[in-house]
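To make this tangible, we now present a fold written out as tokens:
***
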Amino acid sequence: MWLEVHRPVNIPPFSPCGPAFFPFNSARINNEHKACLDEIALYLQQDPRSTLIIDGHRDSTERVGISLTCANNARDYLVNEKGVDAARITVRNFGDTCPHESGDPNLNRRIEFWIMPDGADVAAVDTLKKYAAGATPRVITDETPAASDEKTRSRRRTPHRRGRARQPGPRIEMIVQQ
């Protein structure tokens, strides 16, 4: 009697949607990004053994750390709004070391999403990435996230009275007629 051993098929990583592009020096997650992230969350819920890699990229003219902030904001949306376990998400920051293959600086401001099925190799993602000729992509580990570009709401201020303080007037008593 022969015993057959079936090995799991090695499914390569894939990008379900995106990349998600951002305006200059902005890390705000918009509705278009949320639609893509919602699709990713659904896939991760359907396959609890898969993980996600989020790669942040920026243009060389942007603030240092903005690509890491974009990627962290995407991760935070998935964790806080969609309930994805943070342990299943890896954020990598490429900064400006991996420009878009088209050479268009507007396309450098992006985050890429890679679903990693159970058993997929992280090195496979790097072979799937498309970038400009001559670029040497590397993960940047010594960069801190950029400060938030979100404007904080100003508190409502009470009007300031000018002149001297108002003194209380004479005491008013109520007269009740029977």
Summary: The domain at 20-128 is CATH 3.30.1330.60 (60s Ribosomal Protein L30; Chain: A;).
